[in-house]
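dumping this here before i forget
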Amino acid sequence: MTDTSLQGKKVAFLVATEGIEQVELTEPWKAVQEAGGEPVLISTKAGQVQAFDHLDKGDTFDVDVVVDDASPSEYAALVLPGGVANPDALRTSLSAVKFVGQFAASTRPIAAICHAPWTLVEADVLKGRRMTSWPSLRTDLRNAGAEWVDEEVVVDLSGPGPLITSRNPDDLPAFSKALVEAIA
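structure:
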């Protein structure tokens, strides 16, 4: 039986032009597709983005929409894949930070894995939120007002919309399941 719980729902995947941890993009993307949703790749520039498998170049992916042309209201959820360089570059894009901030003010889910919460720090949307991440972000997230915990997946319902976070690629099954459940 085919899962159609996300039928008709578009899900934004926001990334920089390079440094995306490939599996943190492709696994949630596949989960959204398998649930009948439409993943949309948004980036800071048109063309393609370069994913990585840790420090080795992975595949390239075609950008569907440039963040300057994207409206948060068009999407049922926002996914922020990790990789060290990806969110570090994304947080320097005023358009990307504004998009994340507008999304965080809505009641729709945001899912961030590994280093991706750096963009949420920059958007100043973590005060009072309970979350996890790659361990090296712990102090940054606490300084931004979040309660950091070391758990496979954390679904925080204390803000306007659900915030789903995980630590690393090993957590992807739980992360992807929580994402689809939050959108459905």
